[in-house]
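This section describes the prediction task in plain terms. A model, or a person checking by hand, is given the sequence of a single protein chain and must write out its three-dimensional structure as a string of tokens. No templates, partner chains or ligands are provided. The sample shown here is typical of the held-out split.
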Amino acid sequence: MVQKSKKRPAKADAAAAPKRRGRPRAYQPEIALGKALDLFRKDGFAATSLDDLSAATGMNRPSLYAAFGDKRELYIKSYARYRADARAAMIDIFREELPIRERLQRIYAVALDIYLSGEAGPRGCFTVMTAASEAVADSDIRAMVLEGFSELDKAFAACFRLAREKRELPDTADPVVLAQLASATLHTIAIRARARVPRRELEAIVKGAIDLMVGA
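The expected answer:
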């Protein structure tokens, strides 16, 4: 007589089988956004294709759309990321108690680090080099650009106002006008950095601008 083998309880089988996890995400959104940001900074909006973005991020087109929306939405999110990163790099310098000359020197030094960065060469400033062009026809991007200008002017004005209160500047100094000059200096060194003007020349421009703003 052949003895039938006993079947293992179904519950035991289920318990013994490893649980299948959900399919892992093949990309990390923040890293992918950083790759898109790098590409837009280098080539601008019009010259950057979806195929370029797909190759840079390692994501196919459907995944790009699902994660970030269309190309315009990805551009706007990239620009917002650039502004957030730049703000984070400078906010402590604007907030610290520093003599006005030292404060400006440190702000411009950080700005040059940003503008001169890039594996393929200096990329300048996202706002000046690409967003300002797109702002002509896109009201949402224009609003972001103007908001960025206003935010920067106000931050500089607060610095000059404090310097005037501390007698580092004469009573006749106009914090608003000085702030606009300080912002304009950032814009010009961003353009020249993109054109590969050497850092030492950019630093000379910065020194001359600071001397004009706060006195030699």
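For orientation: The CA atoms of residues 44 and 130 lie 5 Å apart.
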